[in-house]
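Could you join me in thinking about how sequence relates to backbone shape in a protein? Would you write everything just below, so we can both look at the same thing?
***
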Amino acid sequence: MDGLVEFKTEDGVRVVVEGVEDEDGARLVSRGDGPAQAARTFEGSLEGVRAAAESALRVFRDGSLRPDSVELEFGVKLSAEAGAVIAKGSAEGHLVVRLNWSPEPGPEGPATPLDPEATGRS
């Protein structure tokens, strides 16, 4: 199990997370009895993920696809030195994108649910 990393929020609240193991197998070691102290605030650590999400949203919203909604899912690991890291699901970075479109109403207006009594179904 990886060591614990303590982040502070900008409001001074402690957030303790399980630290990530380095690719070469090195582990973060805390000094003393508590978790290792992160170099950045919790919010500061997530800045890179926020910027990546904004960029991805721009790509999917501003293109020719024009979805009604865009869902992004990032796997995120937190590191005391690097802050937030987009986690890999296998050999690549983990990012799931869902684009949704609502059907356009026809000339007779939006579809209404069928009345079971009108169709003879119960």
Remarks:
- Confidence is low (pLDDT under 50) at residues 24-29.
- Strands lie at 4-8, 14-18, 36-37, 69-74, 76-79, 83-86, 95-100.
- The chain is about 20% helix and 25% strand.
- The first strand starts at residue 4 and ends at 8.
